[in-house]
Amino acid sequence: AGQSWTTDVIIIGAGPVGLFSVFELGLLDIKAHLVDILDKPGGQCAELYPEKPIYDIPAWPIISGSDLTDRLLEQIAPFGAKYHFNEMAVAIEKVEQDDGTIKWKLTTDQGTTIEARCIIIAAGGGSFQPKKPPIPGIDGFENLGAGKGVHYAVRKMEAFRGKRIVISGGGDSALDWTVNLANVAERITLVHRRDDFRAAPHTVAQMRQLVADGKMDLVIGQATALKGETGHNLEAITIEDNDGNELHIDADAFLPFFGLTMKLGPVAEFGLNLHENLIPVDTEKFETSTKQVFAIGDINYYPGKLKLILSGFHEAALMSQQAFRYVYPEKKLRFQYTTSSSELQKKMGVK
Ligand code: FAD
Question: How far is the CA of 18 from the centre of ligand 1 (A)?
């Protein structure tokens, strides 16, 4: 069995919105634990577009997904949240206290349990999973380490320096990474079923130029088998062209970009009201119709909702006000500015 914890609030999802909640809650002396199935903080920003620039974060004219995550981690560091990575939140359960009040208990797939006054669902697009190509034994070539084997996302381009890479797919991710990695990799082969690409025309043109210049290869066909030592090393990829001919390409890494399935996952089983796989909330407290359970960020729904990071930040601030009332029912909430409150500055560790 896993460990048991008690805290003030539990945040499901360590995406940008879950992370910023730690700050808003922390200013109100509310301690938090975060649970995320990913192995790192940042949610979509970290997993889907770490190196892509975002242009609409207030006061950051341009910032990459990974830099935004790093800045958020720096900002929330003083509040000492506890992170549970690589764990899926699978169930929540109401626990009546002797004094008639309510607590919530969350259980993860690792058997960890956490009890708290409130649950904050910041689950974004849900526990998203890459769509895998139907290649037998592909699992055995996953998690071989940086720059080796099968990867469904590029976390660090440098990991692929000097490697022989096969990229598969015809959308933006496949084409973006083909063009971006062309200068980094020793050799890139792009494989696609048809000589027709869904990606942005400009990127497709860049790819065609690289092919014309002899700087990469384009193969029309489908990857059908991976060769090498399962669990250890990828050596080559078998590709079948549309006439049924087989081709073997030596490769260190295989990057299939077949899109992601964004599934709500276990949150759908929490017994909450749902509206087209989103969780309806009010716009005063961002609480769900289940008391002491909140939903903020991409996962929630209300009239006029915009799935933007900045909306999630605002929702986190208002949610925290109500969470305070549940965590400290006897205390009075005082509105204070971080600029002028020495009390808040002490909490943030301002010297
Ligand atoms: P997410 O970032 O989705 O994080 C949710 C986290 O919850 C994930 O890490 C997931 O693993 C975890 N999770 C879910 N369910 C469970 C569970 N049951 N157990 C454990 N963990 C769970 N927004 C902008 O404002 N500006 C932009 O320029 C912009 N560009 C974008 C570009 C791309 C390519 C994409 C894909 C999105 C972009 N967005 C942009 C949208 C932005 O990324 C999202 O609005 C933002 O990530 C939402 O944050 P979140 O914290 O609500 O959720």
Answer: 10
Q: Which residue has the least CA distance to atom 9 on ligand 1?
A: 43
Longest dimension (CA), the chain: 75
Q: Are residues 85 and 38 in contact, defined by beta-carbon separation less than 8 angstroms?
A: yes
Can you tell me the distance from the alpha carbon of 240 to that of 256, in angstroms, rounded to the nearest whole number?
A: 15
Residue 89 CB less than 6 A away from ligand 1: yes
* SS3 (DSSP) at 25: helix
Centre a 10 Å sphere on the Cβ of residue 332 and count the other Cβ atoms it contains.
Answer: 7
Q: Tell me the pLDDT tens digit for each residue of 164-177.
A: 999 999 998 899 99
Asked if residue 49 lies in contact with residue 157, where contact means CB atoms within 8 angstroms, the answer is no
Q: Separation of 346 CA from ligand 1 center, angstroms?
A: 31
Residue type, 328: Y
The DSSP output letter for 128 is -
Rounded CA separation 340/76 (Å): 19
What's at 123, amino acid-wise? A
Ligand 1 and 2: CB distance under 6 A: no
pLDDT of residue 152: 87
CA of residue 214 to ligand 1 center, whole Å = 38
Note the pLDDT tens digit of each residue in 2-47. 899 999 999 999 999 999 999 999 999 999 999 998 888 999 999 8
Q: Cα(5)–Cα(213) distance, rounded to whole angstroms?
A: 59
Distance CA 154, CA 175 (A): 13
Q: Is the Cβ atom of 308 under 6 angstroms away from ligand 1?
A: yes
CA of 125 to the centre of ligand 1 (A): 6
Whether the model pTM is above 0.80: no
Beta bridge partners of 217: 189
CA distance 322 to 163: 52
